Amino acid sequence: MIEALSEAERADALDGLPEWDYDEARDAITRSLVFADFVEAFGFMTQVALMAEKANHHPEWRNVYNRVEILLTTHDAAGLSGRDIEMAEAIDAIVDE
User: Which SUPFAM superfamilies match (predicted)?
Assistant: First the structure.
């Protein structure tokens, strides 16, 4: 069973994810990204989708033209888990490429 992060674990994890915001209502983290155009945004989403499928951990997200909004939470844990932190770090690595 996947456990939700404690408050201290969440605070420590968020310190290492400066581009992500905490959504208290969902016990989730969010990030908004803006790309040059739709093709670049969709290319990013494709990379994340392939990674998420391998990890069997899928983001909630929304795309409008060149903007992508991502929300990460673990439904099985009813909140933020280590899996979300790992996914956020992997997403940040893709953005930084």
Answer: PCD-like
CB 71 within 8 A of CB 59: yes
Q: What is the pTM of this model?
A: 0.94
Q: Residues near 63 by Cβ (< 8 Å), separated by ≥ 6? A: 41, 42, 45, 69
User: What whole-number distance in Å separates Cα of residue 89 and Cα of residue 17?
Assistant: 7
In sequence order, what are the residues at sequence separation of 6 or more whose Cβ sits closer than 8 angstroms to the Cβ of residue 90?
A: 51, 55
Each residue's pLDDT tens digit, 44-65:
999 999 999 999 999 999 999 9
* Domains of the chain, residue spans: 7-96
Q: State the CATH class of domain 7-96.
A: alpha beta
Residue pLDDT, tens place only, 81-95: 999 999 999 999 999
